[in-house]
Design a protein that fits this description.
This protein is mainly α and 100 residues long. The chain has five helices and no strands.
Length: 100
Amino acid sequence: MPRKLSREIDDAVQELINNEEREQEYMTLQAYWAEQKAEGGYERAVGSVRRWLETHPRFPIDEYAALIDVTVPEFEEIISLIKEHPDWDDEAISEEIAWY
């Protein structure tokens, strides 16, 4: 019985591996989740810059940018957008940044 189940599982896995349509669906989902993860990271970066402006604006930009894993130009662009559009939320600002 265990061998039969094992064989059925192996067959099902091989069928999925050989199914190009399923492979394309999987790759599309992977790309979607990677994009979602990146967007969440961008929003967190904007939130971090916003907190920096409110609490530690004397902390050197280059050092803080490195801490939150953004480039100095990205950091400066975020600051500019926050000041230009104080009513925008983190998501709206992250959508406008030219991420490098």
